[in-house]
Amino acid sequence: MTARAPIALAVADFRERVRRPAYAVTLLAAVGLACLAVPDAGSHWVIMDVGGYRGAYTSAWIGTVTALAGALWLTMGGFYVVRDAIARDERTRVGHILAASPLRTSTYLIGKFLSNFLVLASMAGVLAVAAPLMQFARGESGAFDPIALLLPFALITLPPLVLTAAAAVLFETVPLLRGGVGNVVWFVVSMVLLLGGQTRNAPLGGIGVRQAAESMRAALVEQGIDVGDREFSLGLTSVAEPLRTFQWDGFTPDAAFLGGRLVLLTLGIAVALLPALWFGRFDPARGPAAVLSKPGKAREGAQHEILGDLPGDVRGEPGTGGSISRPGVPVTMTAPVRGRAFWRLLAGELRVLLRGVSSWWWLVVAAVTVAGFATPEPTTLLPLAWVWPVLVWSRLGTQRVEHGLEGLLGAYPTMRRGLLAEWAAGVTLTVVTGIAPAVRMAATADWAGAAAWAGGALLVPALALALGVACRTHRVFQVVYLGLWYLAVNGVAVLDYMGVVRSGGLPAGPSPLAVGGLALLLVCAALAVRTARHAVR
Predict the structure, then answer these.
(1) What share of the chain is helix, strand, coil (3-state, %, to 5)?
(2) What is the pLDDT of residue 176?
(3) Count of other CB atoms within 10 angstroms of residue 443
(4) Residue burial 323-348, b: 16+ Cβ < 10 Å; e: rest
(5) Does the record carry Transmembrane helix as a key word (predicted)?
(6) How far is residue 124's CA from residue 176's CA, in Å, rounded to a whole number?
(7) pLDDT higher for 515 or 1?
(8) Helices in 310-398 by DSSP H: which ranges?
(9) What are the structural domain ranges in the chain?
(10) Which of 13, 180, 212, 287 is the most buried (most CB within 10 A)?
(11) Residue 211: which region, alpha, beta or left (left: phi > 0; alpha: psi -120 to 50)?
């Protein structure tokens, strides 16, 4: 193979990705991030707070802040956008063709790494294009300096994205990290890296916050502005008063910072090549471990497991009034099941939802529940109780697609009943995992908190179901929910669906009726999407 093979593979893979509607959505999200990074002068929501100040909207300030926001959010969220490259080759059987080709494993991995980076770099490019537009839109400075605006993207945004692209390749080649566990692990790891990257002693210069912050502090001192010990913050935060302005002309990177950027690039390439030690590139000749999975057999086994857990009236067993046969047998319809059909269906959906959940998982649930009864504050452990089941919730609305049962179960005559039972199964799981705070709040007559808890118990599975039905993959809910949970835990009251943010002893978040109403709207949306898909088949 020639030296151009990885580039050709990366370009071909990138072209295939940009044709998807999801790619356009990611670019629109990048535009939204640029708008958040440069809010209106009177906004109470900011990305960069320099001790109660912000820089005037010059090219240097807008370029740096937008680049920092891109490094922060694209590093964490971009991973979920690009992490499906190898799994897609496996699903589409392209991997089997590659296994028969003379393509080297290292070449394949570098090609996927470069493709991932191109996708992430294009998102950063949208930020870079949107930044000068935001400068002119805000109108605080008409002097455009392209170097001051674009240099931060090259030094701050792109190097962390190299590591993100490499991590996506690494995670896809490690069986334990390929699925939902990897999504959660990356969320935790990226948060640790990004928060640690903002500290003064961050290795390799972190994400560049320290260098920019020191330059900004020096500019404040020169202009006679004393911010005392007030912290600099990077991230979407709420401020009581609009930030005041100061003049900042950008920072000059030193040799140590530039050297750290080069080390990050080298480290990213090394991480991308590391799986060559064990990844067989779909080649059965290299042993069972070389093939990441066997989709056909795995799907067939999952079909029988799921159908076996559903009640007899869905499977079409004799004497149950059912109507659906197993794969390969013509589908026939009989009269709908009456009486206790919904409760049998709910029991079946609950067994399907919890299929394969280990005893260790339940042991953690039991430990959190016991601790929830023992802690002084009822809501202390509620965030932990309602983040632990994220991988199980993400199954809602997706299992029938992922295991090839959508057509079979879609023929069931009471689609609405089946979807409601699926949601009810998710609500049951949510109630069980968060039961301790509910009992504690009821025992202390904290009815406002109990109502907020009830709203959250309805909303979480409704969100999982709606995203699962609409997007047909478990990954979207995992990403969206982890972000929502993180913001709620960090005191963003407007997004507090659990009732853990308190003001005057009462939940400071949205009304439980509003949360419950949103849950019902999401369920209705899921039903509408599933009905529309059924109608066009």
Answers:
(1) 65, 5, 30
(2) 84
(3) 11
(4) bbeeeeeeeeeeeebeeebbebbbbb
(5) yes
(6) 30
(7) 515
(8) 312-315, 341-353, 359-374, 382-385, 390-393
(9) 5-290, 295-536
(10) 212
(11) alpha
